[in-house]
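pasting for the record
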Amino acid sequence: MTGLAAGGRKALLRRGFALEYATLGWNVAGIVVLAIAAISARSVALAGFGLDSLIEIGASTVVIWELSGTGQHRQRRALRMIGYAFAALAVYLLGQSTFVLAIGYHPRHSALGIAWAAVTAAVMFALAAGKARTGRALDNPVLRTEGRVTLIDGILATAVLLGLVLNAALGWWWADPAAGYVLVYYAVREAREIFTGLRPHSPGGTARAG
């Protein structure tokens, strides 16, 4: 029975590693594709999406490191690093959206950007769902939390896609940066929940001064 349980855990760990390596590989390729698309379209949104791919690479690397070892201290460090990734993502989205709206920047149409954002959204949502299921089965909060980073990546890809399509079809250049503000709220909330959960609690509840 123990051997079976150990075998099942090893299979889940292999799946967790596979999901993270797939995320890592996709985002490494994405940096190249997005750089080409951003330069050709002179798109701040696509350039910013490339930066988000860098953040996702960092978060995936943290999870691969955590899955390779054990211990609560290692797990808490990994969660803290993912919390910083969420905070960095919020800062980037806030800065990018505000900058684009302030200067009234009108990017060119980008067929490559539209295609990549559409496929990336589908891939990231599938990977996020896989990480959520595997993280629950392993009872691993680091994998579950990083799955939410991947979910935000998918939502961001959808927002970028919507912005690019509306810009190409209707000239609504402001659609993408406006959607970015919604994601700022989500990323800040996730970072706050992580750091609140990591805060030490006094035994027996909160002490009150007499």
